[in-house]
Amino acid sequence: MRAGQALRLTINGRRHEVEAHPAERLLDVLREQVGLTSVKEGCGTGQCGACTVLLDGRPVTSCLVFAGDAAGHEVTTVEGLSEDGKPHPLQEAFVKYGATQCGFCTPGMLLAAKALLDENPAPTEEEIKWGLAGNLCRCTGYRKIIEAIQAAARPKRARKRGRG
């Protein structure tokens, strides 16, 4: 589908210039041109969440976003969660609580969870379930994922109450 048009994308805080048709899927540009293979293609119809990225901090399925529509916006993939080589607290909690299993859904789950905690630092279990809606996992049964998100939110709850 490449038509040779230069697109400027900001991905994980870095500027990238790619050659792509504006209607090419963001998923394909991220994987094939930028080399960010954590963004997975599951269903290709926006229903499984494996290709979830953050677009200006909001979770979107990159299989349904045109690369041209991402120009001028901040795209965050799971590679952009760590800071100075240190894993994000959500990443640490997913490992500690065994929420990764096969790992296919993990990047999308992490990004959906980050968006949730950025908007609601102390979500209830029901709010976590709603925050993960659209992200499917065939391995964990979601219990470990929910526990990991609750654990990552605990320090935020303590700060919110003035204990940290």
Question: Which tags fit this structure?
Answer:
164 residues; alpha+beta; Ubiquitin-like (UB roll); DNA polymerase, domain 1; 2 domains; five-stranded mixed β-sheet; 6 helices; 14% strand
Which blocks of ≥5 consecutive residues have pLDDT under 50?
Answer: none
Count of DSSP helices? 6
Record the strand order, biggest sheet.
Answer: 2-1-5-3-4
CA-CA gap between termini: 52 Å
CATH class of the largest domain: Alpha Beta
At the third CATH level, what is the topology name of the largest domain?
Answer: Ubiquitin-like (UB roll)
Principal-axes geometry comes out as globular
Beta content comes to 5-15%
Write the CATH homologous superfamily of the largest domain: Beta-grasp domain
By CATH, the architecture of the largest domain is named Roll
For the largest beta-sheet, the strand count, sense and barrel status come to: 5 strands, mixed
Overall pLDDT score:
92
Work out the count of structural domains.
2
Structural class, by secondary structure, is alpha+beta
What's the total count of β strands? 5
- Helix-strand pattern: EEHEEHEHHHH
Write up what this structure looks like.
With 164 residues, this protein is an alpha+beta fold. The protein is built from six helices and five strands; from the N terminus they run E-E-H-E-E-H-E-H-H-H-H. A five-stranded mixed β-sheet has the order 2-1-5-3-4, with helices on both faces. Helix 3 (89-96) crosses helix 6 (143-160).
